[in-house]
């Protein structure tokens, strides 16, 4: 049976836009519920100054808690070297550093040109390399707005490859292609993913889809067909982007898991438990923030048998 990895990003991507957010204890309950459902990689926080984003003021404490789960990979977003140092000190397993392929978006998001962001990435890698081996987190780079951006419009694949080459040369452990504001479609996803896998056969390539215009699941299938096996999502589709007005959330994790399991692709996730986790999280965020389809209709009667009845995808 084919297997994929689904990564929960809601505790970071999902909380960025909220004006009121879960308490530390609620975040812990959220992680617990998803861990119980079988989720084994969670982006748990962002190491940004608390005065800019008070929702992540408890980042170090959240990482400490996440490290208590056996086999859970705790990831954190970092905007710069300082954030990376704090993340490594807190003991994250993986650092996620983001560069927007749209340079205008990068300037709006982190006030840096591409060249400055790649320079910062090299400093982060050097910092990690200087740590004792057992304390070194992995580093993954998210190429956001890889398909398009609300400032620059459509992004040419060539711009992604140029930046990806520089990022790969900095000796990272993985690259994530992010459709931050919903510009991707199944055809553009197929083109970009195929070429990325061809150019970087040694590097894990993941995809981070938002459902801004309703194409996230179709895009996920398209990515899967090219060979992508790592997918981001957030429970209830929570998420957005502070520099992309109107941008709705990530692909709903439960919908993504449901789709792949129905296709005969194993995610390692117990869907009834994931739906229970969604109900728990609904109480932690402002009402009406969670979306997704599966939670409305519930699981179909054939769930769990459908995959056995047909050859794997
Ligand atoms: Zn996102």
Q: Could you name the key traits of this structure?
A:
313 residues; alpha/beta; eight-stranded parallel sheet; two-stranded antiparallel ribbon; 12 helices; globular; binds zinc ion
Explain what this protein looks like in three dimensions.
The structure is a single chain. This protein has 313 residues and is of the alpha/beta class. The mean pLDDT is 94. Strands 1-10-9-8-5-4-3-2 form an eight-stranded parallel sheet. The chain has twelve helices and ten strands. Helices cover 40% and strands 16% of the residues. Strand 6 and strand 7 form a beta hairpin. The chain is globular, with a radius of gyration of 18 Å. The longest helix has 16 residues. Helix 8 runs parallel beside helix 9. Bound molecules: zinc ion.
Task: Summarize the biggest pleated sheet.
Answer: 8 strands, parallel
Beta strand count: 10
Strand content: 15-25%
Helix/strand order, N-terminal first? EHHEHEHEHHEEEHEHEHEHHH
Distance between termini? 8 Å
- Counting helices, strands and paired strands, the structural category is alpha/beta
Radius of gyration: 18 Å
Helix content: 25-40%
> Taking all residues together, what is the mean pLDDT?
94
Q: Which overall shape is indicated by the principal axes computed on the Cα atoms?
A: globular
**Largest sheet strand order:** 1-10-9-8-5-4-3-2
The tally of helices reads 12
Distinct bound molecules: zinc ion
**Low confidence ranges:** none
